[in-house]
Amino acid sequence: MKRWSLENFDIGRPLGKGKFGNVYLARERQSKFILALKVLFKKQLEKAGVEHQLRREVEIQSHLRHPNILRLYGYFHDASRVYLILEFAPKGELYGELQRCGHFPEDRSATYIMELADALNYCHSKKVIHRDIKPENLLLGANGELKIADFGWSVHTPSSRRSTLCGTLDYLPPEMIEGKTHDEKVDSQRDLRGNPPFEAKSQEDTYRRISRVEYTYPAHLNISAGAKSLVAQLLKHNPMHRLPVQGVLCHPWVVECSTKKPTTLKAGEPGQ
User: Fold this and answer.
1) Which part of the chain has CATH 1.10.510.10?
2) 136 has binding-site annotation
3) Three-state DSSP class for 21?
4) Is 38 assigned to a binding site?
5) Sheet harboring 72-77: ordered strands across?
6) What would the pLDDT profile of 50-75 be if each residue is shown by its tens digit?
7) Is 183 one of the annotated binding-site residues?
8) Is 76 annotated to bind ligand?
């Protein structure tokens, strides 16, 4: 395995700022390959006690190979920083695109949902649960394809049941709010409307809405019955009643409206 150092890269403009460091556009000097370099400060990682989380993120993401998962090519460190060598997603965060557009038409939403479900189906087949799916952690590649990024909360879980409270409040499913064990079904709560499904003015109200699965559709959006059917099957209080990712890939609305086909379904399955 190649040993990397900062000398191997030309550093360009900043792409984003995170809690523990920054992400820069970069070019590998020998091959001229364009990539993203995530620079994390060791002192900040140690202060927050998340070194183990970073090691887990690197270990998991470096082994995943799927067109809708951001590649982690490698990593290196010096006395004060850790560097992650990542695939560059030229079109930025899905969150930014959603803010710009307000909401997406249903064919575009269905395509993103199909790509996301396909990538999660692959992750779950590898016993990996992401646990923090949200628009800010989804990037867009050169052709507008979805890329799951930021595996900081992810776990490799052969035993399948977890009980840690993690992820981002607005997107947490009921079983995590209530401190119950959870499995890969925590990755199945999505929304089409341009904002979190359980968003409220206070943290307490958000917790309450999540635990009661209280959500409404904005009156100004003409959302089809097929899309509402999918959302209703995903936003279930009991994870055993929640549509699994394979079910998302086969859902009639996704199959009909998505402009792309899944890669993880076997030939002959609905959705193929």
Assistant:
1) 94-257
2) yes
3) strand
4) yes
5) 9-17, 21-28, 34-41, 81-86, 72-77
6) 998 899 889 999 999 999 999 999 99
7) no
8) no
Single pTM value for the model: 0.80
Task: Please name the CATH architecture into which domain 6-86 falls.
Answer: 2-Layer Sandwich (3.30)
- Helix locations, 126-257, DSSP H: 174-177, 203-212, 225-234, 245-250, 252-257
Sign of CA dihedral 235, 99, 252, 148: negative
The two three-digit tokens of residue 243, written as one number: 């549509």
Instruction: Calculate Rg over the CA atoms of the chain.
Output: 19
Mean pLDDT of the chain: 83
Q: Class for domain 94-257, per CATH? A: mainly alpha
Would you please indicate which residues are annotated as catalytic (active-site) residues? 132
| Residue 222 annotated in ligand binding | no
Instruction: Return the bridge partners of 22, or none.
Output: 17, 39
Note the pLDDT tens digit of each residue in 3-25. 899 999 999 999 998 889 999 99
Range(s) for CATH 3.30.200.20 in the chain?
Answer: 6-86
Residue 121 CA to residue 125 CA, distance in Å, equals 6
